[in-house]
Amino acid sequence: MGKTEAADGVDWMGKEAGAWLALAEGKGDEGLKNMRAVADDEDAGRRSGGGSCARNAGRNVDAVETVRREALAEYEVSLQANPNRF
């Protein structure tokens, strides 16, 4: 592996880590956008290095974000109907 390939691998891993960090910090839209960019690079064969499939990870995160948003909306409706529930 040459220096360029190694540098590309580190760059790609940094992008993926940044996507996960954004998600962990509650920046779901930014994290998903970045994860999709990593997945696009992975699909185009521009990825160097190992790791999980970013496309599948992005789909999983997207599903979790959707469920989280729906659950919050349902909770808010429930609080309006039963304000002293908790």
Overview of this protein structure:
- This protein is mostly helical and 86 residues long.
- Helix content is 77%, strand content 0%.
- The protein has one domain.
- The chain contains 3 helices and no strands.
- Helix 1 runs antiparallel to helix 2 and helix 2 packs antiparallel against helix 3.
Rg, rounded, reads 18 Å
Distance between the termini: 58 Å
Helix content: over 70%
The unreliable regions are: none
Give the number of domains: 1
**Which structural class matches the secondary elements?**
mainly alpha
- Count of beta strands: 0
Number of helices: 3
Largest sheet: none
The shape, in one word, is: elongated
- Output mean pLDDT: 78
Give the assembly state of these chains.
single chain
**In percent, how much strand structure appears in the residues?**
under 5%
Element-by-element helix/strand order: HHH
Summarize the structure.
The chain has helices spanning 3-24, 28-43, 54-81. The protein has 86 residues and is an all-alpha fold. The mean pLDDT is 78.
Identify the notable features of this structure and list them briefly.
77% helix, mainly alpha, 86 residues
Helices and strands, with pairings:
Blueprint: H1 3-24, H2 28-43, H3 54-81
Helix pairs in contact: 1-2, 2-3
